[in-house]
Amino acid sequence: MHLLMVVMALILAWYLRSQWSSPIRSWTERFPHALLLFLLPPLLLLTTTFAVFCMGPHGHIMVWGWEGWVSYGLAISFLGFAGVLWLKLVWEGNRMLKQIRTYPIIYVYGTPARLLNAPVVYCALVGFWKPELIISQGLLDTLDVPHVKAVLAHEDGHRHYRDTYWFFFLGWLRQLTSWLPHTEALWQELLLLREIRADYWAARQVDSLLLAEALLLVVNTPILLESNFCAAFAQHISTNHVIQRIDALLQQPDSIGQPKPWSWVWLILVLVPLLVIPFHH
Asked: Residues 253, 28: contact at Cβ < 8 Å?
């Protein structure tokens, strides 16, 4: 029975991920749809293996004698790998933050930031729940005042939505289930929609044309900090993503697909394996 639970969770996770295709939906639908297909499979695997771990290697309904130990071993291995990976990412994040906090603090038009004394054009929010804003001397020297303010407004959008915090969690799930189909494609879709959402937030405060111009001026800056807890204005992004961001800025959609409360109903499916635990004998 335990092994059957694990196999069924694997099949369902694989099937859900295989449903992904190139996005043809509207901006208001793309974010919830991509988030559903990205989140549901790994969460289902985590709750299933946790349920098997809690029930142990023994059970009343076992087809084969070795079934319980095989499923129990798979559950421990998966949960152990997930735990080690989480600790590794947290350690890397804290180490990076310690380094960043050695940079001097400056105020850029009233916004506190850490100054990166480098000629590259770079601006990013780095951290977890309370991230640090990094801005390079190269960006301050390259962009004029209106464009710098546009970039700062974009990063303020990332801060408002706590993108560094949530994408740290999503990045952990990405590495945990990189073997599932379309993981990288969904990750890139979520990164794009994250940036479009921050652009949309910034466009409420500054001219959207300024944002588009700033994006073109700093596009494809060198990769300085590539991590799950880093939200850069424009760093190593494809031409297609640049075009989509500019199109979204010009279209100014009413909503960029912020998930509504009712859209989380699918989480009930994730909790189903946990409901089996009280009935285990």
From this structure: yes
What is the C-alpha separation between 16 and 181, in angstroms, rounded?
Answer: 9
Instruction: Using DSSP, state whether 135 is helix, strand or coil.
Output: strand
Task: List, in order, residues 6 or more apart from 19 with CB less than 8 Å away.
Answer: 37
Q: Which residues pair with 127 in a beta bridge?
A: none
Distance between CA atoms of residues 168 and 40, nearest Å:
17
Q: Give the model confidence (pLDDT) of 36-70 as tens digits.
A: 899 999 999 999 999 988 887 766 555 555 567 78
The whole-model pTM stands at 0.87
What is the side-by-side strand order in the sheet with 123-126?
105-108, 111-116, 132-136, 123-126, 230-232
Q: What does the alpha-carbon distance between residue 47 and residue 179 come to, in Å, rounded to a whole number?
A: 18
Instruction: Give the containing element (helix H, strand E) for 175.
Output: helix 163-176
Q: What burial letters (b/e) apply to 65-97, b meaning 16+ CB within 10 Å?
A: eebbeebbebbeebbeebeeeeeebeeebeebb
- Residue 133's DSSP bridge partners are 125
Contact 124, 235 (CB under 8 A): yes
What tokens appear for 206 in the block? 């500054």
